[in-house]
Amino acid sequence: MSLPSVDVVIPTAGRPSLRTLLEALSHQPPPGRLIVVDDRREPTGPPLPGLAGRVEVLRGPARGPAAARNAGWRASRAEWVAFLDDDVVPTPTWTRDLLRDLSGLGSDVAASQGQLRVPLPAGRRPTDAERGVKGLETARWITANIAYRRSALERLGGFDERFPRAYREDVELGLRAVRSGLRIVGGERTVLHPARPAGPLESVRRQAGNADDALMLRLYGRGWRREAGVPTGCRPRHLLVTTAGAAALAALAAGHRTPAALGAAIWLLGTAEFAASRILPGPRTLPEVSSMLLTSALIPPAASAFWILGLLRARGARPVPGRPEAVLFDRDGTLVLDVPYNGDPERVVPVPGARRALDRLRAAGVAVGVVSNQSGLARGLLTPRQVAAVNRRVEELLGPFGVWEICPHGPEDGCGCRKPAPGLVLRAAARLGADPRRCVVVGDIGADVEAARAAGARAILVPTPATRPEEVAAVPEVVPDLESAVDLVLGGGG
């Protein structure tokens, strides 16, 4: 059995721990390319001096780890892309174990999750921060040690770049993968994740992740934690304690002492219980206890504020639709300039950028087709031979299409194929072997959009001067040209 091709992608913000990671890999046969994505906003040189010759360093987009990982895997051409975080240490057999984990996996397997171990200091109880890192050992789908099949990343559209932190972006991709019918399996390769010292307020800063949880709720509903194996956490208690404290302050300001005292008592009891739950399992040193008392008072309002802010920002959010199986184009006004009832191949003129846009889809393995109303046939203004000749000329100029679906009827015929009816889209998807829900329809008028919606497909509008303003206003995805539409399709729509 031949070994799979694998590239390793490591996003970094320049942390010194990257040197340890790369040195560990330098003593092992590399599985493929080592791609470090330097995601610092203003990099002043290589991520770590003296190591640039061992790896390929890409300039990252500086929009967070999700965008950095997308930049890394899109630079790869291997069958598999293995992701590592820049603060882990691969074991001496990691490369060999990686290749063994990936060998022979079925095509329904999107990813292989490696193992992670957190060594804790001996001779004392772990601190609150160390226990938090220890929890990563049982986390599902984390990118500290996971390999995705590149074709699965293309199909899914990659990581959702609306997640700006190293928090939940990995769970979101994993959940999207399993919901699409793919599998994520376990592997034997292992990395170590040292529990490095944390600042006294680090636990408060981490509450920004509550905004990402709010986005997950908007995207996947209340059951997302159960599906992803994510613990419930303390947010309900934080919201209660924060509400009690705010109510106590408001009552006190209004001169209502009894309600103020009740609210203060609930706040104090809730804060004390939270602090005790963090102090008792720990080393109970004076610095640790002092830090726990302070941060236990600050965490509930911080968590609540980020949660509410996240809910507001995530209004209307939808999951990344991922890479479609097919893109179906309207012909006249979308692929070629609109010449009414054109039966002359010499009058076919592609819109600017059409060939480049189509070739990008073909190169990405996305099927392309045409769905076109041709009422000139019903009106006797065109013959089938003329329509076929024009379509051949379109292909001569723009390249081959996997399917052509033409409606020969007029508006008064009441057929099921003429857009805005879904027939053309459904027939084209069936001939391509594609699920209509995994198709995109690109057109220039409202009828194209309505046909897509009726078929369950995604719609992208590329307006022309003939497009009515109300049609543009009614469509959520509007772009100025075909190349921008392809950017939206290949980028996952995020």
UniProtKB/TrEMBL annotation:
Subcellular location: Cytoplasm
Domain Glycosyltransferase 2-like: 8-115
SUPFAM superfamilies: HAD-like, Nucleotide-diphospho-sugar transferases
Keywords: Carbohydrate metabolism, Cytoplasm, Hydrolase, Metal-binding
Keyword Cell cycle: no
Molecular function per GO: metal ion binding; phosphatase activity
GO terms under cellular component: cytoplasm
Superkingdom classification of source: Bacteria
InterPro entries registered for this protein in UniProt: Glyco_trans_2-like, HAD-like_sf, HAD-SF_hydro_IA, HAD-SF_hydro_IIIA, HAD_sf, Heptose_bisP_phosphatase, Histidinol-phos, Nucleotide-diphossugar_trans
Single biological process term from Gene Ontology: carbohydrate metabolic process
NCBIfam families linked: HAD-SF-IA-v3, HAD-SF-IIIA, Histidinol-ppas
Family named by the database record: Belongs to the GmhB family.
Protein name: D,D-heptose 1,7-bisphosphate phosphatase
Species in which this protein is naturally found: Rubrobacter xylanophilus
